[in-house]
Amino acid sequence: MKKILITGGAGYIGSHTCKLIAKAGYEPICFDNLSTGYKEFVKWGPFILGDLKNTTLLKETFKRFKPNAVIHFAGSSLVGESVINPLKYFDNNVGSTLSLLNAMKDLSVKNIIFSSTCATYGADSLAPIDESFPQIPINPYGMSKLMIERILKNLSDTKEISHISLRYFNAAGADKDSEIGESHNPETHLIPLAINSALGGKVLKVFGNDFPTKDGTAIRDYIHVEDLASAHIKALECIIDSGKSDFINLGTGKGHSIKEIILGLKDLGLNPHTIDSPRREGDPAVLVANATKAKQILNWEPSYNIKEILASAKAWHSRS
């Protein structure tokens, strides 16, 4: 059985990937410091409590489990926080990844799947964004991910480490069995905030009603977390087979505005309590993926539509 080290495996996307990767016949080794993840989300393989900056512990983990590859989720991911505290993002994201890559190099682990982001593109585009779109991040979070991508490209060029960097858009939804779901502290993502508003009576702030979009609210490409997890398995199989590095978008190619998401939840019987608020610094008006390359290279395409995404999120939040 192939073993895969999954950094950040106790987090939202990481835990869903651990579940699907175990079903696919791999053994996920979860490495997480639990700064944003949850121990109760670790159910499908061994758990190592540790920080990626602890290169010694990483090397010990590689020696103990002898993983065939790494899937790297761990890192800080709040756009607004990155604007306020950029050093944290360069330290946690870039610094921790350098520690991981040094351990991989020393222990001859050659393949990594990297959790990147559409925030590396930065600028607004009315057309779906493909991988050739200029990468000009407008916030430190996106810049930190782009720096990692460039480091990985350098390592690929020197044939030290191969990578597939997956630039995904807005992860959403929950495991269809409602075992795990989306829970952040603090919560900043629209769908869980809207559901919690409806269930708990809290006010949902809509950041910006004057964007150059059809209804004035920001448009995002929401992709189900299980679709993201399945793409990581496809990327893992691809890189183990070929050893070829690449950068690939993950999205649905369809954008939905904040108002459309709220209306979708109302169709499910939820009624978020909303209030208009100013735009957040660093928020683009539109982010929608062109995921053609994912279909061509990975033979992957999303299976959940927005109604199913919202229904799965409602089911998990209602249960939890």
Report what the structure shows.
The longest helix has 21 residues, at 86-106. Helices cover 40% and strands 18% of the residues. The radius of gyration is 19 Å and the shape is globular. The two termini are 33 Å apart. It is built from ten helices and 14 strands. The model has no long low-confidence stretch (mean pLDDT 93). The protein has helices at residues 12-23, 55-65, 79-84, 86-106, 140-157, 190-200, 225-242, 258-267, 292-298, 306-319; strands spanning 3-7, 27-32, 47-49, 69-72, 111-117, 162-168, 170-172, 203-207, 219-220, 222-224, 246-250, 256-257, 273-277, 286-287. Helix 5 (140-157) links the parallel strand 5 and strand 6. The chain has 320 residues and is of the alpha/beta class. Helix 1 crosses helix 7 (225-242), helix 2 (55-65) crosses helix 4 (86-106) and helix 6 crosses helix 10 (306-319). The strands form four sheets. Strands 3-2-1-4-5-6-11 form a seven-stranded parallel sheet, with helices on both faces. A three-stranded mixed sheet has the order 12-9-14. Strands 7-10 form a two-stranded parallel sheet.
Output the number of helix runs. Answer: 10
Q: Please give the order of strands in the largest beta sheet.
A: 3-2-1-4-5-6-11
The major beta sheet can be summarized as:
7 strands, parallel
DSSP strand content: 15-25%
- Helix percent band: 40-55%
Shape: globular
**Classification by helices and strands:** alpha/beta
Number of E strands: 14
Distance between the termini: 33 Å
Q: What kind of oligomer do you see?
A: single chain
**How would you spell out the order of helices and strands?**
EHEEHEHHEHEEHEEEHEEHEEHH
